Amino acid sequence: MAGTRLQIVGAFVLFTLLAAPVAWHLTQVERVDLPVDRIQQLSWAASRFGGPDNFHVNIYSLSSVSSPAPPSSASNVAYVTHNLQLNAKQQKALQTAMTSGLQATDDVLETLMTDHTRFSVFLLCDENAAASTPVLTVGKYHHAWSSQCEVNKGDAVHSAIEKLVHMHVYPQTDQKNVKPNIESKIARRALHYRLQFSLLKENPTTPWNEDLRALVDQYLSRFVHKVGALANFTVETQVVQYARLAKEVTASADGTEFFINADDLKHVSGFSVS
What we know:
Layout: H1 2-26, H2 36-41, E1 55-61, E2 77-83, H3 88-100, H4 102-112, E3 119-123, E4 137-138, E5 143-146, H5 156-169, E6 192-201, H6 212-227, E7 232-241, E8 250-251, E9 258-259
Parallel strand pairs: 1-2, 1-3, 3-5, 6-7
Antiparallel strand pairs: 4-5, 8-9
Helix pairs in contact: 3-4
């Protein structure tokens, strides 16, 4: 019998010894070295979060007549006008693209941009544009274009650029211009409310000269009147007499235990000790 027990215990010990290396290997967590060099090369200014405080929008015009930059309604956005000079090859490519469609025009304008970090607006000065041509067209690249020759303060092109830039390109965070999304919902309420005041008195012989009902009427009458227009409101007052279970709690000699003697409970009315 003793040999059988020894064999069982030995089998468990042997299994534990054999499984311990495997279990230890499975519980190991592979630790990869941090790319310290790459982390040190990170630059906040070069990231997309470290952009400039002021944003500039380039307005390129194909017209030979220079015009002043239109004003911006946002303090952190400024418009900069440029006269775009195209060679014969570029002019031919642009004219062909304008007759081919919006996608071709968008692709050609992408090749004419000199600064890809700023949003750009091209004024193509297309005299053959149809009357139904949009005032401003936004492409898939970082630019938009218009068939007009110039942009002036308050005209349709200026309004379209302002709306595009301030709402989508460089959204403004001015809370004064943001209309909160307010929804009206019916508040859930009950049909009956009850407010109860309880005065707890330890000694029944202690007189109480205050009128609880008068105090409630004095301080809560206006509140009850207002709430009563919505639902039934009841105010209740009561005086509750209570007594401590024991006047004193006895401590042991070493102060580690506390108990109540039978004689300490005799002052409680209706309590009997057997």
